[in-house]
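Supplementary Methods S3. Input chains for the assembly prediction are listed below.
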Amino acid sequence: MSAKAGEKAQKTGDFYCASCDEKVHAQQGDKIPECPNGHKTFETRRNEPGNKS
Ligand SMILES: [Zn+2]
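Predicted C-alpha cells for the full assembly:
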C-alpha cells in the first residue's frame, strides 16, 4: 500500500519514501509530510520492532 505527501494518513505510523527510504512519521488524520529529500510517494509499513537483516 502506498501513500502520498499531502494526503491524510489512514493510520498512525511511519511512512517510508518509495524513492530513498527516508522515514517520516504521521498521525492518523494528519497530512503526510514530504520526504526531507523532496519525494512525495511513500510506502506504508506497520510499526514493527526489530530489524530484518
Ligand atoms: Zn525520499
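The CA atoms of residues 17 and 42 lie 4 Å apart. The radius of gyration is 10 Å.
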